[in-house]
Write a structure and sequence with these properties.
Elements (H helix, E strand, L loop, with lengths): L3 H4 L8 E5 L3 H7 L4 H22 L3 E8 L7 H24 L3 E5 L7 H14 L6 E8 L1 H17 L10 H5 L12 E4 L18 E4 L9 H12 L8
Parallel strand pairs: 1-2, 1-5, 2-4, 3-4, 5-6
Helix pairs in contact: 2-3, 3-4, 3-8, 4-5
The structure holds 3-methylbut-3-enyl trihydrogen diphosphate (IPE) (2 copies) and magnesium ion.
One 3-methylbut-3-enyl trihydrogen diphosphate (IPE) binds next to strand 2.
């Protein structure tokens, strides 16, 4: 049996894959550990999937790492996640550079602890010239926050006479989103069995193909990622036409 990696058609790759990395808590609980242990094990999957995407030449990979709603989790879990993000970004920066990966971040980044914002900015600056995969981390992100933020900026620009209501179009609106200059996802993957979007990229997912798997995020391997790509390549995309 060929592996899923061998079955991927390199001439028909999705340009942008977005992932809702879900199920860290359940994965840990099922093994008798606390949720934070699950988050620690989720980092390994982030590394694997980033490598997997870079290896076959995918241009954009967006990972939903922390939602604006996730701020409402118990303080100890939020603190542990922020610590883990600080550690991981620091530790992985050389690997990103080695693999020619450029890092970007989207979300309400001002809400992040100063130390994390700082580390994130350093990593973004140090990888900015890399021309391989663009890895986009969604942190303190939610689509409704993003859309409201866009509307506020549009109103400002109308007040400043830099924009008229008549000029507004889907293209111009998209330029006010945090994903400006990033193409819409072709494929959205959600792990761990929930069949929902959870406030992720509501505008950008308009015509994305959706792929759901029961696999919990800490178990999501390179082959799981390639399996999703193969599934995507079986689909017929019509865009309403
Ligand atoms: C995903 O795993 C990681 C984050 C949302 C930060 P969860 O923490 O949501 O794990 P489950 O879904 O409760 O199992
Ligand atoms: C979505 O997962 C957010 C991230 C993966 C960061 P959640 O676990 O927070 O979403 P719900 O609560 O299942 O909808
Ligand atoms: Mg969850």
């Amino acid at each position: 049996m060929p592996t899923f990696k061998e079955q991927v058609d390199k001439t028909r790759l999705p340009e942008h894959v977005a992932i809702i990395m879900d199920g860290n808590g359940r994965w840990a609980k099922e093994r008798g550990y606390n949720r934070i242990f699950g988050h620690h094990n989720g980092v390994k999957s982030v590394r694997e999937v980033t490598e997997a995407a870079a290896e076959i030449g995918i241009k954009y990979l967006t990972l939903y790492a922390f939602s604006t709603e996730n701020w409402e989790r118990p303080q100890a879990e939020v603190d542990a996640l922020m610590e883990l993000l600080i550690e991981t970004i620091e530790k992985e920066t050389p690997t990103l550079n080695k693999n020619n990966v450029r890092l970007l971040a989207i979300g309400d980044l001002k809400r992040l602890p100063g130390k994390l914002e700082d580390k994130l900015q350093r990593c973004i600056d140090s990888t900015t010239l890399n021309s391989g995969l663009t890895l986009v981390l969604a942190l303190s992100y939610s689509a409704r926050w993003e859309i409201i933020n866009a509307v506020k900026n549009i109103i400002k620009d109308i007040d400043l006479k830099q924009l008229t209501p008549e000029e507004m179009s889907a293209e111009i609106f998209a330029n006010y989103l945090t994903t400006k200059s990033i193409p819409d996802p072709d494929l959205l993957i959600r792990t761990s069995g929930e069949l929902r979007i959870s406030n992720f990229l509501l505008w950008q997912l308009a015509y994305s193909e959706l792929y759901f798997t029961e696999t919990h995020w800490p178990e999501f391997s390179k082959e799981c990622f390639y399996e999703a790509i193969c599934d995507y390549q079986q689909r017929e995309r019509r865009f309403g036409k």
